[in-house]
Amino acid sequence: MSYQLIELDIQATDNIQCLHCQQHVINWAEEQYIQPCEHVLFIAMDIGFEYMTDEFEQTMPRSVDDLHAHDDQVNMFAEIVKSTYPDYLIFKSDLGIEGYFRYVGFTA
Length: 108
Hints:
Layout: E1 3-7, E2 16-17, E3 24-26, E4 40-45, E5 48-52, H1 54-57, H2 64-69, H3 76-80, E6 88-94, E7 101-107
Parallel strand pairs: 1-6
Antiparallel strand pairs: 2-3, 4-5, 4-7, 6-7
């Protein structure tokens, strides 16, 4: 396994901070709440991707466009963990909808 899953015990409206540089990569105080730093590989939800680096997308078996085209049939978490990216961390947090989650991938 090239990833480590870290489940965050936070509310859906809480900010998520980079463990490397402490930047709030999910920052609800900003109009554009997605604020990726250089350590973020992707920001995804069970319903689709909000952000992904080209570097990480190249390690996935399917493109983001293909995944979004079939998002009603795709398990986003299962697709993320199929990546061949060498080592990364996935922060999993509640999305605020029962049974749905947000996933933020960071370099290890």
